[in-house]
Amino acid sequence: MKKLAIFASGNGSNFEALAAACAEGRIDAEVALCVCDKAGAYVIERAAKYGVEVLVFNPKEYGSKAEYERLVADRMDTLGIDLVCLAGYMRIVGDELLGRYGGKIVNIHPSLLPAFVGAHAIQDAFDYGVKVFGVTIHYVDQTLDGGKIISQVAVPYEGGDVEELEAMIHKAEHRLYVDTVNKLIE
Ligand code: GRF
Fold this sequence. Notes:
Layout: E1 2-8, H1 13-23, E2 29-36, H2 42-49, E3 54-56, H3 65-79, E4 83-86, H4 95-101, E5 105-109, H5 121-128, E6 132-139, E7 149-156, H6 162-185
Parallel strand pairs: 1-2, 1-4, 2-3, 4-5
Antiparallel strand pairs: 5-6, 6-7
Helix pairs in contact: 1-6, 3-4
């Protein structure tokens, strides 16, 4: 069975969507590792609920990005990780991870890329007056939210409630991530 590592920094609703799909057999893979760069992030509790090993690190305790990425990549090598899913991981992936897992790292972003890169994509698109929002899953390279697009889904919304919009986009994310991971591990 294929093994996934999921990287997250916060809430972890996408982590949970993937973990639940694996646990219920909707994805034929196992979530073997959760990587988190923030002690106390809610995703750590979610991982515990699914019995998933968590590797938590504090980037400030390392001299360089390469140092903590080496630690993470070594653990992934030991576990035999096939696919790395970034899900709200708020860091640019560096040379060490890209050198060892390049082409096997994907990210989910809450906009129709290349529009609205960055950490506030939903709010930025909403403020811009966008009428068709969406979600993108793409391969990861060293650019912010760059890399070849794998899948997208549109979320039309013309209302005025950004929280309602966020909820719709997150729902679309969870579905798209499960479908896309299924295709990638085929
Ligand atoms: C998602 O909107 C994802 O697209 C973005 O960060 C958010 C993470 O949400 N990269 P969650 O932690 O999975 O709930």
